Hints:
There is one protein chain. The protein has 430 residues and is of the alpha/beta class. It folds into three domains: 2-124 and 243-305, FAD/NAD(P)-binding domain; 134-240, FAD/NAD(P)-binding domain (3-Layer(bba) Sandwich), CATH 3.50.50; 325-423, Enolase-like, domain 1, CATH 3.30.390.30. Helix content is 31%, strand content 22%. It is built from eleven helices and 21 strands. It has helices at residues 2-9, 24-29, 31-51, 64-88, 140-143, 160-171, 191-203, 290-305, 334-341, 388-400, 405-410; strands spanning 15-18, 92-95, 98-102, 105-108, 111-114, 118-120, 124-126, 152-156, 175-180, 207-210, 214-218, 222-225, 230-232, 235-238, 242-244, 277-279, 319-321, 327-331, 344-351, 365-372, 378-384. A five-stranded antiparallel β-sheet has the order 17-18-21-20-19, with helices on both faces. A four-stranded parallel β-sheet has the order 10-9-8-14, covered by helices on one side. Strand 3 (98-102) and strand 4 form a beta hairpin. The longest helix has 25 residues, at 64-88. The radius of gyration is 23 Å and the shape is globular. The termini are far apart.
Amino acid sequence: MRASRVAAGYGARVAIAESGRFGGTCVNAGCIPKKLFAYAAHYREDFEVARSFGWTVGEPRLDWNVLLANKDREIARLNGVYEDALAKAGVRILRGRAAVLDAHTVQVNGERHTARHILVATGSWPQVPGIPGRELAITSNEAFHLDKLPRRALVVGGGYIALEFASIFNGLGVQTTLAYRGARLMRGFDADLGDHVAEEMRKKGVVIRLQSNPARLDKGIQVTYADGSAQEADLVMFATGRKPNTGGLGLEAAGVKLAADGAVIVDAYSKSSVDSIHAIGDITNRLNLTPVATAQGMALAKTLFNNQPTALEHENVATAVFSDPNLATVGLSEEQARERHGKVDIYKSAFRALKHTLGWHEERTFMKLVVDTESQRVLGAHMIGPEAGEIMQGVAIAVKLGATKAQFDATIGIHPTAAEEFVTMRDKSA
């Protein structure tokens, strides 16, 4: 959508083919409904915290159907907003599934359309391991449309989606287990983040099983793990990865080279092995985040239609996991920094936020800075705690600009906030 609108703004004649609702995964089955659910899940805890501030409230009760209806209404509104924006930009909308016939031809509903450039941005799709009984499980796609909440849920996975939905189910009152085959959650992130987020989620009631891999599901639902142990659940959700959505698009027949996982192989300017065919977003499996996909779309439009070749830089992109508590990061993990830069200085802080000091709540906020010893440039910033994503967006600007630890230290904090800790950490960790 962003590529289409920006290209049209540069004077290109643009058509867009869509067989479903506008907005892609993010709007329809990702970022937006996920965060709305995350807000809903956190209210149970907020009601409890309110008591320590003198508020007396009745017994909270969730009406799942109200939440679903309100979520659906908002998604429908966004679908309309995006479609209207495309129409106002002069983009022709083709309703139907597209297939690439050759370097310059696309077919939609049996009708052929030719273009100087073709852009493929069909995203990715959840994958479920091929174990016996896999048909009894759901993915994030179905989790947004459950008829009712289960009493017991098992979420399988250790990344963004797994942590977020485990937190959502737990916050909404479901007995929740999170099972992951690895030894630490959030593989690829700073190791401290995986350890600390697991500790905090356990405090909130999520049962976390590490090095546990379901091998079989039986009706009931009976879950049998690879080690022979078993448990019962009313719902099993797999969040074990997504695969680029390239099947049946005709790309390989048109000469487009795909990676082993089906991703379209592109250069720095999002061009595939066929000069006239381009790809952006999750289908390229570079950095699968919505803002990255939209930035790739803008860069491509500039390259093709504004005489401004633009290669998007994928370094120091901030990201957040809307688990409970939130997790956010920008730049290099400690492990990555040591590998690339050798000597690094590490600063850590863990504390109970002011909001939780009046009651029983034991949640601890965690912050970490990774600093290059020689240049003193801040290479990475990491956080677990309330509004981590909101805080990290500002920190990301400093990291992107190459700020040093001394410049962080010279910045006066806003008191009392959790965010000020990023500019007041003075003691190096061993």
